[in-house]
Design brief:
Strand order of the largest sheet: 1-2
Radius of gyration: 25 Å
Number of strands: 4
Shape: globular
Strand content: under 5%
Mean pLDDT: 84
Distance between the termini: 80 Å
Number of domains: 2
Low-confidence stretches: 1-14, 636-641
Helix content: over 70%
Length: 641
């Protein structure tokens, strides 16, 4: 029987990690940011797309080949840093949010939302965005004195966020990687890719290359006709069957994803969580959605009134989330977070005690006093800053949200990701807005800004730390490398974002995606601020009862009936519509029941992550180049000469 002392001794004796943050990886981070950031911003504004994969793969290939040419190949620890950080440095387009703020202040659509006889733009404070009379909107630039305070505040809140997330990340990494050893099924994908490219073992390289070629071929067949010629051979991103079923099941989300990688990557997901994700999604979006229209429309009257035949998957999902699942989803998220935190309380305590025994020189982890200092500086600092900016809102609830909810969010998100491979985060934006709604607050500033409610980033980063363990990379280098990536995208993003805004108005036909998404976002913001969303106390009560019943089942079924239960799977299924859960279940089922019988269980277990990573690489490169080629083609076509 292992004792706590034995467990601590095991943690101390872990094999030594190697350094991943070097001059070469630092250069790669800044290279990716300054080269690919303008492409990322442009694609986001024109197509709502991202180029994370192409930025990462292009940087990896370039730096790998240069290193080989000079006789000093990249180590797998260096490749890990490049893989994790170049995508962040190249695609974090925070400055688009600043430009959107300017749109919110100057748009005629904003004038239609009125609060106590005043239009919404009149009540937006200048520390959030310059007033509509600002010269910066005429010359369209962020390099203007009126943008100084809004820009500096994004930096200040960014620092508070990093401190909070780093503190939570250290705890969740020890908790779910060192102590509880959750599988993090998707971590092996990146780890195998990095190891294969670094070690260049002939068999592994061959298998990776074959999978990449297959991914490129399938990616070309599925995506290139749509991207380059505008011909949709296969409906994308899903095949929508709601028009066939809306008479029988009105409001049901019936369709299936058509992205090949969603099926391939699902082979890494454990079957039990995948099954619960699938079943829960079917119950919520195919059974309950129609039930609230046909059988008990009085439960959610706006949903039954708004639903119209022919709405399609996207609109059904959007409207049902606002009119039905907003409050139940919030209640479920909060209660399940509290449940996991109480359930893991002893393990959290063990993980915190282990911090005093780990060698910070070897791992780079922060010690417990530093962790606590970072957490409280990040959360309390953001609360104090928020109170200075919004003094007419009581400080108690912002304090509870920032200090308490951040930790809950990080714990539950990391656990669910560790068990299912699927991301889950509390809808902190809607939680905050619901609080503001229920508080009776009558201003605007409190809707636009909130104290830091962390945990969303750190829960996902915990999987990255798992990859660091698999590649024997010093976990502390992840923290340092992220700071470099943060600095890189802050500088390059501000420069390129301002340039693209100067080039043409946003939104405009030059950036067509914004013509659709920005007015929609503005309408959602305006509906919240003017209190046109219905938050009812009876729905809160009934939702709490239902969630309590689910939590009891999660304890009773395994304990008394020996039936496995995945509460993490249920949590993901509540938030995910069937078109996304169907491929998850199919891929996981094939991986568990079919492929091992054909190729052997051991071979599949050892090679499946490598095959998936190769397929993702091939398809990602094809999509990236396809998007770039399509943009070049359209730009040339529009020239008048």
């Amino acid at each position: 029987m292992k004792t706590e002392g034995g467990e601590q001794a095991r943690i101390i004796s872990e094999p030594r990690f190697e350094k991943g943050l070097t001059l070469r990886t630092s250069l790669a981070i800044f290279f990716a940011s300054f080269l690919f950031m303008p492409i990322s911003i442009y694609l986001q504004l024109t197509a709502g797309a991202a180029i994370g994969s192409i930025a990462v793969f292009a940087t990896v290939i370039l730096f790998s080949e240069i290193s080989l040419a000079v006789g000093s190949p990249l180590k797998k620890q260096e490749l890990f840093i490049i893989f994790q950080m170049c995508g962040i440095a190249a695609t974090t387009t925070y400055m688009v949010e600043l430009i959107y703020r300017g749109y919110m202040v100057t748009s005629p659509l904003s004038q239609s939302f009125r609060i106590m006889g005043r239009s919404m733009p009149e009540m937006i404070p200048s520390w959030w965005a310059p007033p509509s009379s600002s010269e910066s909107y005429i010359i369209r630039t962020l390099f203007h004195l009126d943008w100084l305070i809004p820009s500096l505040l994004t930096v200040v809140f960014g620092i508070f966020t990093i401190l909070t997330e780093f503190a939570i990340l250290t705890i969740t990494s020890l908790l779910y990687i060192e102590v509880e050893k959750l599988p993090f099924p998707m971590a092996s994908l990146t780890a195998d890719m990095v190891t294969t490219l670094a070690e260049r073992e002939p068999y592994k390289i061959g298998l990776f290359s074959e999978a990449a070629i297959l991914g490129a071929i399938i990616g070309a067949l599925f995506h290139l006709p749509r991207l380059f010629l505008g011909i949709e051979i296969v409906p994308f991103p899903w095949a929508d069957f709601t028009n066939l079923t809306d008479q029988i099941l009105p409001g049901a989300i019936i369709g299936v994803a058509t992205e090949p990688l969603s099926y391939i990557s699902a082979t890494l997901i454990p079957w039990i969580p995948a099954a619960y994700i699938f079943v829960t999604s079917i119950i919520v979006y195919i059974i309950l959605n129609p039930l609230f229209i046909k059988v008990i429309p009085q439960a959610f009257p706006k949903w039954s009134e708004e639903y119209m035949s022919g709405m399609g998957i996207s609109l059904i999902y959007q409207r049902s989330q606002i009119n039905v699942w907003l409050v139940p989803g919030l209640i479920f998220s909060i209660m399940i977070s509290a449940f996991f935190t109480i359930k893991d309380a002893k393990i959290v305590s063990r993980a915190l005690r282990s911090l005093s025994l780990l060698s910070s020189r070897e791992t780079g982890y922060f010690r417990l006093p530093i962790i606590l200092g970072m957490y409280f500086i990040g959360t309390l600092g953001s609360v104090i800053t928020f109170h200075i900016l919004v003094p007419d809102m009581p400080i108690i609830m912002p304090l509870l949200f920032s200090v308490g909810l951040s930790f809950l969010n990080g714990i539950v998100g990391a656990r669910i990701l560790g068990e299912t491979g699927q991301t889950f985060s509390l809808p902190t934006g809607n939680i905050w807005r619901t609080y503001v709604y229920l508080s009776g607050y009558q201003g605007v500033a409190g809707w636009l800004i909130s104290p830091v409610i962390g945990g969303g980033l750190s829960s996902g980063w915990t999987q990255d730390i798992k990859v660091a363990y698999l590649t024997r990379t010093r976990p502390g280098d992840f923290f340092k490398a992220f700071i470099l990536a943060w600095i890189a995208y802050r500088i390059s993003g501000f420069i390129w974002g301002s340039f693209l805004w100067t080039f043409a108005p946003i939104p405009s036909s030059t950036y067509p995606a914004t013509l659709i998404s920005w007015p929609l976002s503005l309408m959602v913001d305006g509906i919240w601020i003017t209190r046109q969303i219905d938050v009812r106390t009876d729905i809160i009560l009934y939702s709490s009862i239902c969630v309590a019943a689910i939590l009891l089942l999660s304890v009773a079924l395994p304990e008394f009936l020996r039936i496995p239960f995945s509460l993490s799977g249920v949590a993901v299924g509540v938030m995910t519509p069937p078109p996304s859960t169907i491929p998850l279940f199919i891929g996981s089922s094939i991986s568990r029941f079919l492929i091992p019988k054909i190729f052997g269980e051991r071979w599949w277990r050892e090679n499946r992550a490598l095959i998936v990573s190769g397929f993702a690489t091939g398809e990602g490169i094809i999509i990236g180049f396809g998007i770039i080629a399509a943009l070049i083609r359209r730009s040339i076509w529009s020239w008048p000469f």
